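Onboarding guide, step 5: your first structure request.
Type a short instruction followed by the sequence, for example:

Predict the 3D structure of this protein.
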Amino acid sequence: MVQASPEGWLSLAVNTNSEGKAPMKKVALLCMGLAISAVNAAEAQLTMQMTNGWTFTFAGNVNAFAVYDDVSDGGIASTPGGIVGAGDALGGKGAFQIRTGLLPAFAVFDAKGKEGNTDVGVHFGFAPQIQCAYTGGQNPSVNGQGHDCFGAQIDMRQVFLTVGGSWGQILAGRELGLYQRQNILTDQTLFGVGATGGPDGGGTTLGRIGFGYIYPQFKAQMTYSTPAGRPTQISIGLFQPATNPPYETVQLPRVEAEGVYSSGNTKVWVGGLAQNNKTPDTGGGGESAVSWGGTAGVRFGTPSFSVTGSGYYGKGIGTTLGFLGGAAGAGTGGDDLRKSYGGIGQLTFTPAESKLTVAGSWGISILDAADTEAAFKTKNWLASGGVYYQATKSLKVVGEFNYAVTDDDADGTEKNKEIAPAFGLMLFF
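The system replies with structure tokens like these:
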């Protein structure tokens, strides 16, 4: 058998072609390979040795969650970057769905070979989701009454090649970004629901995207990583740049980097990104704005207990999705970029010789006004608690409760609040 790496199992996408213009409620993410505690790394279910010396592997998962989603009456927070809907978004009534959680079903195909002293490989990932898009109204249960259940998605999330050796590895293609990817990989809601993003989405739930970290996105890239298997690994890459309206001219690649130290149950990481955008040149030269961000985190644990903390800070990087709402729109340069910051605290516990893991976490993401606009501060925070039972080697049973809030930090404004209890089954093969 060939073990699948966490990065090789993690696939996330949004239903848009522009990172800076992606709708908040259409985020889709797959992650497999990182358990809440002492769950073994997934193994490829099918391994075939080809006559040319290459190895072909196939593996995947299917999951389904029953979710009750209720947005409270009265919330009126409406500043930029808010996620939880305001007021009577569902007419004051809850909504029930059977849907994909934060993790869609997945089918992963890998082919790897060795030619001389060079390791080569290709990777393809397909991610279906089970529910249809909600088209409006107060009752999402009407979804899928059309004969073809229009709106269900089958997305190609990863397409990349790798070239490596004793000197490290180059990855070229579409894969998870480096900036804040460890913040996602250590998040308990990967095996649950987390924040739903509302009951009207056709994609997966948000988990903690926008409630403690910014989604690093799966993007076209060329990334070099130092050799794996050592305590410290460093990665740096050139990425397809994103627009950051009104700074929509992109002449240089974005740079993202990450350093990770691992030893036993301890992991420490740092990361960063930088990108230069300009306003369109209308004759007088465009205004330039440099977006940047930093992140760091630590996870410490024993076979039964772990504590994780991570955070980020940046300017012009937006919230929820990379560069979404990162600029105020005045087009005057660096003073037009909004500040973004947030973090997560998380605890997990697995009794000795038990198949049950209990986890709890709290996280927040904040978007702060630029100097060129009226002051505001949007806060999105999520408290999540879950019970994860490994019923068999392949079957996981999940129970979860989530409480999400959007607050504009203004006196007299009632917060937007949402609860989302969930129960689900996840089968990895």
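Each response can be followed by summary notes, for example: Confidence is low (pLDDT under 50) at residues 1-42, 137-147.
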